[in-house]
Write a structure and sequence with these properties.
With 427 residues, this protein is of the alpha+beta class. It folds into 3 domains: 2-127, no CATH class; 156-308, Neurolysin, domain 3 (Orthogonal Bundle); 319-426. The protein is built from 11 helices and 16 strands. The chain has helices at 2-8, 21-30, 34-45, 57-73, 79-84, 92-123, 132-147, 151-154, 160-175, 261-279, 298-305; strands at 178-182, 193-198, 204-211, 223-228, 231-233, 236-238, 241-245, 319-330, 333-342, 345-357, 360-363, 366-374, 377-387, 390-393, 398-407, 412-426.
Length: 427
């Protein structure tokens, strides 16, 4: 990341780290240079507070004063009272009552963690007291030491495009939605992606834009918003144009964008808001689609789905299928019947049919329905298997080749390899 950012800034051969979160947080977590950790941390916390042309303290003060003035004009004592009146909490007092519960539970834990981190610093002869810019670095080391947990080891399982496909599969399973990328529609930046969303009957439902990566003109964080909310005008339903905005690490060289556990949760969280915006039906232009009051159930679905979504970067083949099957030859017709293992899952009694010419076997598309359990829940999935023509030694009943799986067709397409060894049965 640092080398690519430096090259893009015309600083080839150097390393560049910015105040964007995907650049900042890894540096604070893994850099051994404490002085640079302090510099980048203070640079981040003092953005807009440097008494220069970019200083915005006066602007922030004016915004706060205007908010109070507006609240008073509408009969509220503060801006907080005005904003919360239309939310679940209703009053600042209720907000503080909830926050104090969290605060009282969290503070003793945070203090204990600080003591443990200071002991680690002392054990390394650090000769300094724990500061804010040390926290990420030593918390990561402590987590590795105590629990052998490392975010970097999880990231290869969460390649961005695979997480996106898995997210679309969740929406397909729950609501029958399908997503087709469009390249003919305007988008906010060349890095963004535009999808047309179709309902389970194939009709147009919405447009969804996904803007994944940081850039100088873009603020940090993650959010859902809309370019056009759904509404009804003169009995015509106007469909929404929804956007999801994140700030994930960009691909670097041959390495794709890889997400942390937390970033995967964030992506599903924002997708929940996006679904609210895309599926809402109302009579006016305001449906509070991106309101955190709504129940964001999609995030809770992700971990159950991981068992059958193949997050397998950096393997060269996204999945391998193996099976002990019966091979039946009837003239030039070939039938492969048996149980096939894909990762941890076994699909039973799947039948592939095709024809052979010499040792060249061409299989037809095979549709099947498979059922499996995950955490006590039974899932059913429709899969269309498409094998590339392959060479097989039918005398010894073995062979293999490439295969494509269309999972819940229209939702996810995956490619992999296919091998079999079998007992030969010839009529």
């Amino acid at each position: 990341m640092g080398a690519d950012d430096a090259k893009a800034a015309g600083l080839g051969g150097k390393w560049l780290y910015t105040l964007n979160k995907p650049s900042l947080i890894p540096f604070l977590q893994y850099s051994d240079n404490r002085n640079l950790r302090e510099k980048i941390f203070k640079g981040y916390t003092n953005r807009g507070n440097n008494d220069n042309v970019h200083d915005n303290k006066k602007i922030a003060s004016k915004i706060a004063a205007l908010r109070v003035e507006r609240a008073n004009l509408l009969g509220y004592p503060t801006h907080a009272h005005f904003i919360l009146d239309n939310n679940m909490a209703k009053t600042p007092e209720n907000v503080y009552a909830l926050m104090d519960q969290v605060w009282e539970a969290a503070i003793p834990i945070a203090k204990q963690e600080a003591i443990e981190i200071q002991k680690m610093i002392d054990a390394e002869n650090g000769n300094f007291n724990l500061e804010a810019w040390d926290w990420w670095y030593y918390a990561e080391k402590l987590r590795k030491e105590k629990y052998d947990l490392d975010d970097e080891q999880l990231k290869p399982y969460f390649e961005l495009s695979n997480v996106q496909n898995g997210m679309f599969e969740v929406a397909n399973k729950l609501w029958g939605l399908t997503f087709e990328e469009r390249f003919d529609l305007p988008k906010p930046h060349p890095d963004a992606h535009t999808f047309e969303v179709f309902d389970n009957d194939g009709s147009h439902q919405a447009i969804l834009l996904m803007d994944f990566f940081p850039r100088p003109s873009k603020r940090g964080g993650a959010w859902m918003s809309s370019y056009r909310k759904q509404y009804t005008k003169e009995d015509e339903f106007i469909t929404p144009v929804i956007t999801m905005v994140m700030n994930f690490s960009k691909p670097s060289g041959d390495t794709p964008s890889l997400l942390t556990f937390e970033e995967v949760s964030t992506m599903f969280h924002e997708f929940g808001h996006a679904l609210h915006g895309m599926l809402s039906v109302g009579c006016n232009k305001s449906s509070n689609n991106n309101d955190d009051n709504n129940e964001n159930s999609v995030q809770t679905q992700v971990w159950d789905m991981l068992i059958h979504i193949n997050f397998t970067y950096p393997d060269t083949s996204p999945f391998d299928i193996t099976g002990i099957v019966d091979v039946k030859l009837d003239g030039n017709n070939v039938t492969l019947t048996g149980d096939y293992t894909i990762g941890a899952l076994t699909y039973e009694d799947i039948v592939f049919t095709g024809t052979k010419s010499g040792n060249k076997v061409t299989m037809t598309t095979t549709d099947c329905e498979v059922t499996f359990e995950s955490q006590g829940t039974t899932y059913t999935e429709n899969i269309s298997w498409i094998m590339d023509p392959f060479t097989a030694n039918l005398d010894n009943a073995s062979g293999g080749g490439d295969i494509t799986a269309l999972r819940n067709p229209g939702a996810v397409t995956e490619s992999g390899t296919f091998t079999f060894t079998a007992e030969l049965k010839e009529d």
